[in-house]
């Protein structure tokens, strides 16, 4: 006899609900010892003091395992048909997962590829967990009440995140209070809690999501979702609750100052206008009232922050304007940078600036200095600091000394914002970093954004140096989260311009979800993901374009579709991170499940 399966049960969803509510809220210190590549490509510290990512990854894996167990329980209870035959989605999921594994196994830095880079921890285990989460959500969410449970859970978590963010904006940061510190700092480190330095101040929202950019990605999902539901839900009591949550989400979206979130929201609203245009025309008062409230929030937050919000938005318009403008002024500024180039060959190195060229050579175990004409320069010792200076007036701002880094003697040369490290041994000079790692000195490849490297908070620079790397990742990538290892960190001149003099800025992410995927797991894996997103978008538009939105499933389905579009839009300027990505994959899985339910219902109605 075939087993009867009661799909009214909710306990199957508990791990997914816990993930969507609890994971984004986790903030707790983990001191992670660094060694090998994780140390080599980090900032010189031997420990990573992580508050926002490490424990999130631990619990993502734990909840994923329990969710998979729930699927097995469902199989035991149901006996068969426990997995939907959604092969059009399973194929890109499988292809992407395959290339994640291949890119990890073939990576030069397997340790990073498996576990992820410091502060991010989005290695193979987590990327595969995302795909499992998506698959499980598609198959565990089976009916309208399940959808309601998922959305209510999502809104509970979002409300808590939003309230923390609201108070941060007003200058009352939970994590700076004794209660907050007791939550995020283990007891054995509490005596040193006064040493914690907070990067963000009043009028900046990072909530529990690590950085305001990721608040932007989160709110690019949540604000369009709650706004859409506010427009469509007819129950007045629920509409009032949604109005308050939407208001809170809007405050966090604008207050985060994340331009990526605004761009994602604009894209979401374009999709909203496309699929809901007929409904909006008939019920324009709710739509217009929502837009009016959004404008009011913008003005209110701008007044509160003394113009900071408007200035942030102006910078977005400035970026748009800069794209079309001639870059001659930027190129002139680049030509005047303190450091114009470094040439290293054999036992000699040449430091080129706009005003002079300094040549250092290794001779008989010592270092001599010449000017551009190979005239020898005399040195003078500074006893107080152990440094040397050059007597010539043209080189008076240079300071040099030997320092011990690990087991290596490193020669350091400083001039104003220039700080260079050289390893000198065996009649050879090599450029190194502040940890003694040898750096490449060949010309750095770039593509596009010439003179526009500061575009989008230096995203123009990152993209211009990242795109040339794609020629090596057509089939497989460098490995998950290994971006920092392959980005040309030795591009001092480019960094000095892009980061306003900071030549040692560590670039550990591409600030673009799609570029991140193509470099980490390969262009073919990116195509698989784009196929997955494309199928969902096309299916959603076909289902909701002519919908009357007279039932909860269609309301939830279109709202989730708009939320997914918001995240994908923000992904043009933000990366995938463990604080936000699990929520996105569960939302996407829920959206796919809803589309399946609506399609099945339409088929049944057609047959009747």
Automatic annotation (TrEMBL):
The chain crosses the membrane at residues 12-32, 52-75, 87-105, 125-142, 149-170, 215-233, 240-256, 262-280, 287-305, 513-538, 550-570, 576-598. InterPro entries: WaaL-like (IPR051533). It comes from the Bacteria. Coiled coil: none annotated. The keyword Chaperone does not apply. Keywords: Ligase, Membrane, Transmembrane, Transmembrane helix. One of its GO terms (molecular function) is ligase activity. This is O-antigen ligase family protein. It comes from Clostridium malenominatum. The lineage of its organism: Bacteria, Bacillati, Bacillota, Clostridia, Eubacteriales.
């Amino acid at each position: 006899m075939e087993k009867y399966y009661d799909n009214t049960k909710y306990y199957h969803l508990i791990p997914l609900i816990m993930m969507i509510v609890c994971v984004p809220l986790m903030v707790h210190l983990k001191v992670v010892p660094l060694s090998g590549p994780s140390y080599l490509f980090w900032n010189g510290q031997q420990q990573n003091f992580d508050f926002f990512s490490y424990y999130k990854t631990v619990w993502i894996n734990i909840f994923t395992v329990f969710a998979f167990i729930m699927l097995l329980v469902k199989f035991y209870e149901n006996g068969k048909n426990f997995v939907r035959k959604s092969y059009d989605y399973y194929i890109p999921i499988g292809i992407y997962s395959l290339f994640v594994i291949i890119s990890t196994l073939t990576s030069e830095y397997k340790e990073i590829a498996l576990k992820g880079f410091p502060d991010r921890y989005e290695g193979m285990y987590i990327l595969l967990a995302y795909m499992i989460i998506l698959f499980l959500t598609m198959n565990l969410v089976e009916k309208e009440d399940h959808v309601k449970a998922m959305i209510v859970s999502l809104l509970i978590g979002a409300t808590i995140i939003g309230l923390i963010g609201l108070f941060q904006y007003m200058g009352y940061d939970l994590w700076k209070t004794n209660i907050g510190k007791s939550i995020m700092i283990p007891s054995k480190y509490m005596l040193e809690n006064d040493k914690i330095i907070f990067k963000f101040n009043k009028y900046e929202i990072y909530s529990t999501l690590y950085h305001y950019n990721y608040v932007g990605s989160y709110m690019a999902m949540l604000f369009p979702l709650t706004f859409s539901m506010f427009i469509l839900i007819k129950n007045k009591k629920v509409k009032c609750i949604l109005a308050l949550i939407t208001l809170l989400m809007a405050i966090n979206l604008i207050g985060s100052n994340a331009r990526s979130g605004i761009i994602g929201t604009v894209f979401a609203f374009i999709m909203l206008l496309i699929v809901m245009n007929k409904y909006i025309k008939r019920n324009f008062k709710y739509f217009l009232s929502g837009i009016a409230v959004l404008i009011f929030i913008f003005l209110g937050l701008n007044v509160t922050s003394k113009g900071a919000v408007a200035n942030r938005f102006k910078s977005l318009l400035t970026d748009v304007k800069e794209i079309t403008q001639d870059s001659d002024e930027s190129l002139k500024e680049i030509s005047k940078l303190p450091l114009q180039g470094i040439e290293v060959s054999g036992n000699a190195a040449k430091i080129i600036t706009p005003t002079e060229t300094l040549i250092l050579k290794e001779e008989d175990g010592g270092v001599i200095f010449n000017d551009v004409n190979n005239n020898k320069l005399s040195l003078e010792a500074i006893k107080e600091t152990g440094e040397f200076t050059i007597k010539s007036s043209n080189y008076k701002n240079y300071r040099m000394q030997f320092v011990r880094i690990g087991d290596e003697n490193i020669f350091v040369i400083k001039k104003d914002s220039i700080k260079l490290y050289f390893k000198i041994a065996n009649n050879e000079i090599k450029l190194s970093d502040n940890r003694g790692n040898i750096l490449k000195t060949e010309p750095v490849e770039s593509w596009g954004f010439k003179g526009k490297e500061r575009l989008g908070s230096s995203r123009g620079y990152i993209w211009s140096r990242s795109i040339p790397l794609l020629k090596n990742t057509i089939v497989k990538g460098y490995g998950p989260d290994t971006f920092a290892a392959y980005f040309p960190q030795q591009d001092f001149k480019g960094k000095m311009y892009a980061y306003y003099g900071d030549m040692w800025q560590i670039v550990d992410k591409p600030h673009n979800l799609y570029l991140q995927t193509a470099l980490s797991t390969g262009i073919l894996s990116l195509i698989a993901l784009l196929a997955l997103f494309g199928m969902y978008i096309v299916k959603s538009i076909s289902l909701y374009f002519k919908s009357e939105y007279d039932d909860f499933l269609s309301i939830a389905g279109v709202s989730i579709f708009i939320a997914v579009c918001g995240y994908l839009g923000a992904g043009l300027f933000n990366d995938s991170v463990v604080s936000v990505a699990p929520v996105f994959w569960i939302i996407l899985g829920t959206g796919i499940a809803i589309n399946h339910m609506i399609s099945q219902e339409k088929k049944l109605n057609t047959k009747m």
